[in-house]
Amino acid sequence: MNAFVKRISKKISKLSPDQIQQLFNQLVEENESLFSVLESISTGLIICDEKWKITQSNKVGDRLLPLKARYYESKQADLQCDEEIWNLVDDEDIASFLQKASNEKKINISEEFILKTPAGAARYLNISLLPLVQNKKLCGTIIKIDDITEKRNQETLLHRMENLASLTNLAASVAHEIKNPLGSISIYIQLLQKSISKARATDEKIPDEKFLEKYLDIINQEIDRLNNIIVDFLFAVRPISAELLPENPVKILESYIDFFKPELNEKNIILKTDFIEKSPKILLDEKLFKQVMINLVQNAIVAMPEGGTLTISAKIKDDKYIISVTDNGIGMDENTVSRVFEPYFTTKVTGTGLGLTMVYKVIKEFGGEIEVDSIVGEGTTFKITLPIPQSEKRLLPDII
Ligand SMILES: Nc1ncnc2c1ncn2[C@@H]1O[C@H](COP(=O)(O)OP(=O)(O)O)[C@@H](O)[C@H]1O
Ligand SMILES: [Mg+2]
User: Fold this and answer.
1) Which one of the ligands is nearest to 345 CA?
2) Within 134-285, where are the H helices?
3) Contacts of 302 (CB under 8 A, 6+ apart)
4) Is the pLDDT reported for residue 397 higher than 70?
5) Is the shortest distance between the CB of 336 and ligand 1 below 6 Å?
6) Whole-angstrom Cα distance, residue 275 to residue 256?
7) Residue extents of the structural domains in the chain
8) Residue 163 pLDDT grade (very low, low, confident, very high; cuts 50, 70, 90)
9) Which of 83, 283, 287, 328: disulfide with 87, CB 3.0–4.6 Å?
């Protein structure tokens, strides 16, 4: 109630009929202007009383939240529908989200939902519950509904474009890789042709057998090299089919650490771990996540030929899950840092240069990011940032 109305309502018995009429008109006007604000915002709003029955909804709310026909019928007839909102919502997930919030008396929460529009397209909604407070008392719930479809579609598009860009890089590096063996095959074939025609021109004998075999061996080796390049290329471009399930990364890390401890001992590497105590679950493919860790740890081991310290941590910062792998090994110069994720980039004699390409692809598939921080002679940190699902964020302690 605004101050003016408050003041006047105390004196209502002393007001003349004219003054009451004036007051009434003012209230109607105020109400209408509030109502038009409610109707013109792009966020869907549905207001429920303390028993979770709908008292009001704006047009956007009616359009976004799938409600059963009987709700619209009673709204048209200006009647209140005497049912809890979850019985009126025409989507199981949303209905159970609302009912659960009511049972567990949770407010100030939000969750994302995917709905199918009648045309068959996906619609992404973010639904938040806010307390409705009047006279300092909780008297209901405001359901706020935002259509985040466009934002989501743009994210997917960006993700695809990024993949396409890395594919172009990949194709360029394959072309480069193929050039060398093709060049030497062509040189040795020319040498063979020359010696054959020379032999024909003279005594028609095949040139020295050893000489011939040597050339053919080299050609065979180069063909093998080409074949390997193609096999690796196919591995690098093949889309990874990740099956993302809610998993506790700390549990996976702990089980994996037991597996590589003996190797670390043998190589004089001390392992330090720093894991968050009650880890939320995040969407991962366990097998692929293990592959990522194997690659990062193997690279770290190679970077510390004289031994050293390997630190693995799992933490939460700014609503994100952060996993870091740090070594105090040889480190990398700037040029190496800028190329580590490139397919075939390696500084090792027997390296494939595909380990970190795979790591990058998997982390992208998990919706995350990976960064490198390195100083020559001091060491390297690979930092993986992964999103925490909305449903898990709610369970996080407030201090984080
Ligand atoms: N922890 C690390 N410390 C120093 N250099 C690293 C580290 N991890 C990766 N690198 C550099 O990145 C390159 C690419 O790594 P990767 O893709 O795993 O291929 P590979 O291990 O086969 O060389 C390595 O050759 C190395 O130069
Ligand atoms: Mg490697």
Assistant:
1) 1
2) 149-201, 209-237, 249-266
3) 329, 348
4) no
5) yes
6) 14
7) 1-40, 43-147, 152-237, 245-393
8) low
9) 83
| Cβ-based burial of 112 (10 A; exposed 0-12, middle 13-18, buried ≥19) | middle
Interval 84-106 mean pLDDT: 91
Q: What is the mean pLDDT of the chain?
A: 87
Q: Which two tokens stand for residue 333?
A: 């110069």
Closest alpha carbon to 327 in 275, 268, 379: 379
Separation CA 121–CA 127 (nearest Å): 19
Our answer on whether the CB atom of 348 is closer than 6 Å to any ligand 1 atom is yes
Q: Look at residue 399 in the predicted model and tell me its pLDDT.
A: 43
**Fold assignment, 245-393:** Heat Shock Protein 90 (3.30.565)
Q: Does 351 have pLDDT greater than 60?
A: yes
Mean per-residue pLDDT for 157-184?
Answer: 74
Residue ID of nearest Cα to ligand 1 atom 1: 300
How many other CB atoms are found less than 10 A from the CB of residue 3? 7
Q: CA 114, CA 156: separation in Å to the nearest integer? A: 15
Q: Which atom of ligand 1 is nearest to the CA of 350?
A: 22
Token pair for 73: 């019928």
Residue 159: C-alpha distances to residues 142, 169, 228, 240 (Å) = 34, 16, 29, 14
The amino acid at residue 164 is L
Q: How many residues does the chain have?
A: 400
Question: What would the two tokens of residue 117 be?
Answer: 């529009």
345 lines ligand 1 (CB under 6 A): yes
152-237 maps to which CATH number?
A: 1.10.287
Distance of CA 308 to the CA centre of its chain: 33
How far apart are the C-alpha atoms of 282 and 241, rounded to whole Å? 17
pLDDT above 90 (res 54): yes
**What is the amino acid identity at position 76?**
Q
Cβ–Cβ contacts within 10 Å for residue 318, how many? 7
**CATH code of domain 43-147:** 3.30.450.20
Q: Which pLDDT value is given to residue 155? A: 78
Ranked by mean pLDDT, which of 163-172, 186-195, 205-214, 321-330 comes out on top? 321-330
Q: What is the pTM of this model?
A: 0.54
